[in-house]
Amino acid sequence: MATVKIDKSNFQSDVLGAAEPVVVDFWAEWCGPCKMIAPALDEIAGEMAGKIKIAKINIDENPELAAQYGVRSIPTLMIFKGGEVADMKVGAAPKTALSSWISGAVA
């Protein structure tokens, strides 16, 4: 399963109401580091399908969600469990680091 696109219309149901933990990637089209981690997040989404969901929110299209969660720098990754932010990571990282951070947070 690849990453899913989230916006204000489906954030409540697909992130806050999700049964599994959701990794939300706050990103923008113009963000170089965001583009660097995108393939790694797609791979992790496939490898961990059924355990987690990885969602992407474009902050230019959804500034209210970015503001609501205090996103000041991108990429910002947040792990939501049971509708709450369980963990957060700011900045790009290699796939191995992202994978172990996600695995540790959802364990």
Account of the protein in words:
- With 107 residues, this protein is α/β, with parallel strands linked by helices.
- Helices cover 37% and strands 25% of the residues.
- The chain has 4 helices and 5 strands, in the order βαβαβαββα.
Q: What proportion strand?
A: 25-35%
Please give the share of residues in helix: 25-40%
Rg, alpha carbons: 12 Å
**Major beta sheet, specifics?**
5 strands, mixed
On the 0 to 100 scale, the average pLDDT is 95
Beta-strand segment tally: 5
Shape: globular
Query: Secondary-structure element order, as H and E?
Result: EHEHEHEEH
Low-confidence stretches: none
Helix count from the secondary structure assignment: 4
Structural class: alpha/beta
Numbering strands along the chain, what is their spatial order in the largest sheet? 1-3-2-4-5
Topology:
Blueprint: E1 4-5, H1 11-16, E2 22-27, H2 32-47, E3 53-58, H3 63-68, E4 76-81, E5 84-90, H4 95-106
